[in-house]
Amino acid sequence: MSVSPAVYSQSGAMIKLFKVKERQREIAESANGRAPVKKQTAGELRLHKDISELNLPKSCSILFPNGKDDLMNFEVVIRPDEGYYLGGTFNFSFQVNSIYPHEAPKVKCKTKVYHPNIDLEGNVCLNILREDWKPVLNINTIIYGLYHLFTQPNHEDPLNHEAAAVLRDNPKLFESNARDSMCLQCGKVAGELTDPGTEVKT
Question: Could you say which protein family the record assigns here (predicted)?
Fold first, then answer.
């Protein structure tokens, strides 16, 4: 069954609508004599709270490809409004475990990008997703962390070591390579072989 993605950004009204519709569904099912709604796990309850309290910059949005019945798997879209990646669009998948927030969500970048802190498999080097994760942190914190990776890429803690070295030694060349990678809708990003005849700056 095809479900239109539910999209949520900075608008508090849309978040409230989400909660109202959920309550209306529960009331309708009760009136129709259906089985009670499955009790949510602690992780689902906490995630629901995080989503209801999102306060994102205009350059970030969140969507639920599987609809509101699957909050544990969603996507975040980041469109940086400054820095090396200005004008780009970057999609991230989030998988949230049932023991959240005691374990950080699994986050992958679905967009190929030339970036010191994101490798070609989409793995993300962000401290709060690893050793610095704490249960007091939330989805809003992670999204802001991802956003800052694009406005302030960090060459000191790299996954893509080549990109990190270029950023450190030649920021203008790094900017050019980042721009080139955003223009490649297909193939691999700078630092790897692309389509035959395509020149890659190194």
Answer: Belongs to the ubiquitin-conjugating enzyme family.
pTM of the model as a whole: 0.75
| 60 part of the active site | no
User: Per the residue annotation, which of 60, 109, 125, 186 is the catalytic one?
Assistant: 125
Mean pLDDT of the 78-92 span: 95
Q: Let me know: does 143 contact 76? Beta carbons within 8 Å.
A: yes
β partners of residue 78: 60, 90
Cis upstream peptide for 101 (omega within 30°)? yes
| Cα–Cα distance list, 95 to 45, 92, 100, 146 (Å) | 15, 10, 10, 15
As beta bridge partners, residue 92 has: 76, 109
pLDDT digits (tens, 9 = 90+) for 4-44: 444 444 445 555 555 655 666 666 666 666 655 567 889 99
Structure confidence at residue 69 (pLDDT): 84
Q: What's the rounded Cα separation, in Å, for the pair 174 and 167?
A: 5
Sign of CA dihedral 164, 167, 169, 173: positive
